[in-house]
Design goal:
With about 350 residues, the protein is of the alpha/beta class. It has helices spanning about 20-30, 80-95, 110-120, 130, 155-165, 180-185, 185-195, 215-220, 235-240, 255-265, 295-305, 310-320, 325-345; strands at about 5-10, 35-40, 55-60, 75, 95-100, 120-125, 140-145, 170-175, 200-205, 225-230, 245, 270, 285-290. The strands form two sheets. The chain has a seven-stranded parallel sheet, with helices on both faces. Strands 10-9-8-11-12-13 form a six-stranded parallel sheet, sandwiched between helices. Helix 4 links the parallel strand 6 (about 120-125) and strand 7 (about 140-145). The chain is elongated and about 65 Å long. The two termini are about 15 Å apart.
Length: about 350
């Protein structure tokens, strides 16, 4: 092994969603800790255009790359396709690898998937909920390392413009892919419909795009209190605008958007699903509403709307809690695990 640890972060998903952002954040935070971080990416990945450091990265034109990588000490696979490739690369080169599991259900039971997990030096679960999704007694080496917050800096001029646009409004915002089957946005639209009379200043913003946008817009037809912004890069500006962050997901491994809302010092209302409960403590760092229950969601939002002292206390506690998810802290936990894996392999 070279004096400077060489770690290849592999993520073969296209686009730029939460998992890709976490891959990027980890690679850059590890660089700050002296690691030689490299990236193996899919063609069409959104990671390169978001790089803030000159990391070495390779984009493959194939669904699974055919080239083996020998000039690294460790591979960290960040999603399913990358896990398959990391196992294949291990067979070819002997390079040890780890897999991060983001989803709160067990991976597929096919031969390739089982082999990829069984031969991994460690499986990182981003929450206890993700860990519990694996079969009891699974012969795997598990570590729990959560996602990290994203360093964000709002543009004062952009924030002032947004606040002028929504002057006099109490803004409830949801940030994420518009994927109703996963994110449960229909319940937030239903809650908006329930609250339009009792909370006249309440405005709902759906910040993001996705496959169910047209369907959700149709659900919100006639609701003047609901607005869709489409995809936005300037998330920090919108977080600075919001009065409450709402997260009605049907399932989550952890919910990195929650971490960003916490770091922004926002009161949070979220669905009480596995993964979210690993981050939010009901009544302390946010309010949890019963899963798939629009009435419970509406009631929690109204509590924040009506009670400024409660909103301030939740926001203050959430911001304090978010410090545990800072990039430097989470990256150090990964680095400690990398070193342990390599030391155990040499022993």
């Amino acid at each position: 092994m070279s004096a400077k640890l060489r770690v290849l972060q592999a993520n073969l998903a296209r686009g730029f969603r939460g998992g890709e952002r976490q891959t990027l954040l980890l690679a850059e935070a590890l660089t700050d800790l002296g690691v030689d971080s490299r990236l193996l990416l899919a063609r069409g990945s959104g990671i390169p255009r978001h790089l803030s450091k000159p990391l070495r990265h390779t984009a493959t034109r194939r669904n699974l790359p055919l080239n083996a990588v020998r000039d690294c000490d460790l591979v960290h696979a960040q999603e399913a396709k990358a896990a398959t490739w990391a196992w294949w690369n291990h067979l070819r080169t002997g390079t040890p690898y780890l897999i991060t599991r983001h989803l709160p259900f067990a991976p597929g039971g096919g031969f390739v998937t089982r082999a990829a997990y069984q031969n991994a030096a460690a499986v990182i679960c981003i929450s206890e909920s993700v860990r519990r999704a694996f079969a009891p007694g699974a012969p795997l080496s598990f570590s729990i390392i959560p996602n990290m917050t994203a360093p964000m800096h709002a543009d004062p001029a952009a924030v002032a413009e947004l606040r002028a646009q929504f002057r006099g409004c109490f803004v409830a915002g949801h940030i994420g892919a518009l994927s109703n089957r996963e994110k449960g946005q229909e319940f937030l639209i239903a809650a908006a419909r329930m609250l339009r009379e009792s909370c006249p200043r309440l405005k709902f913003l759906f910040i993001g795009g996705g496959p169910d946008e047209a369907e959700l817009r149709e659900m919100a037809r006639g609701l003047s209190t609901v607005e869709f912004t489409g995809f936005r890069d300037n998330i920090a500006d919108y977080l600075a605008l919001l009065d409450v962050f709402v997260f009605p997901s049907r399932f989550e491994g952890l919910g990195s958007a929650l971490l960003d809302a916490m770091a922004a010092g926002l009161p949070i209302v979220a669905g009480a699903v596995a993964g979210v409960r690993d981050v939010i403590r009901d009544g302390e760092t946010g309010l949890l509403a019963a899963d798939a229950d629009a009435h419970a969601l509406a009631a929690a939002i109204k509590r924040i709307y009506d009670d400024r002292k409660l909103a301030a206390a939740l926001a203050r506690n959430a911001k304090k809690e978010s410090a545990a998810y800072a990039p430097a802290i989470i990256a150090r936990r990964h680095l400690d695990l990398y070193r342990k894996v390599l030391a155990d392999g040499q022993g």
